[in-house]
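Supplementary Text 2. Reproducibility record for the structural model of the 175-residue chain.

All settings were left at their defaults, and a single model was retained for analysis rather than an ensemble. We include the record here because the model underlies the residue-level annotations in Supplementary Table 4.
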Amino acid sequence: MSRLSFSFYINDSQNQSKINQMKNQVVVTGDAAGNVIVTSKNNPEYGFIRVEQSRMLVDDRGWARKKTVSSLIPGKVEDLKGFEWSAGEMVSGKVVVNESLKPFNDQEPDRDLKIAGETGVICTFEGQPIYRKTVFSFETNAADTFVKHDNVDEIRAGQKAHASTLQVEGEDSFN
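Retained model, structure tokens:
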């Protein structure tokens, strides 16, 4: 006579709810004094609040990575004060990654170029530069938009050059 065994998974909805709640939150950052609103140097009437979120992403090679993504929330200082957020506060929302072949800012298109790590190499698709911008959304299900780069050989050469630069810098510190 054969014996059957059963495994049961007890779904602790309270714990699952806490995990989902943490996944759907961003952290409000602040300076050393705890100020969350950074005032514009050009016009003190305007400023921004920075938020960040730790997320699981899958890179171009299919590898899972935990990455911290951040976004600035610009606005008039008086309007930003209306959030009444403090440094370290958890806020429901998501940092959304948007990539495009069109610049997000026509006056300063280079501002949002997608750069491959510390190589300085601009990611491209069919010869066109990829632009990347992050935005904060209260919509926790907001979707990211990615453009897969195709200049792999150029990026690898940049990574190799960057790695050799680091090695030389490290050797120089011992001389």
